[in-house]
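Minutes, project check-in
Item: structure for the 132-residue chain
Input as provided by the requester:
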Amino acid sequence: MWIELWEGFNDNAQVTYVGEYNIKGMKMGRWNIWHQEKYGDDKNNQIGGGQYEEQQDGICVKVGMWIEVWEGFNDNAQVTYSGQYNLNGVKVGQWEIMYRKNEDEPFKKYKYIRWIILLVTKRFFNQNWRMD
């Protein structure tokens, strides 16, 4: 069993990954994502994770349902993504954005994602919009 620090780990984002490696040094099997909200607190809460599966060529890829953390995740902006990976390790289908302000609240589905996608699309692909 391995415990790895998340790449954005700091006092306000104490996120770790827990799982196993195969003999070739690749992640395999179930990996869980944990968050410790208060610095020095022994309590960790599982906030995500998913399954790695070995392919015929020996490479392990994410498969099935995953919950992943947003790259800006922190104690005051707890955002995760949830969705499916196909058998080739590629994201498929609709992914949901979940958020909460702190661990005292349950994660909620972000309702306004369609508006964000619409605005970003207009901003970058409509010729009438300028890039500032």
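Outcome recorded: Residues 2-125 form one domain.
No further action items on this chain.
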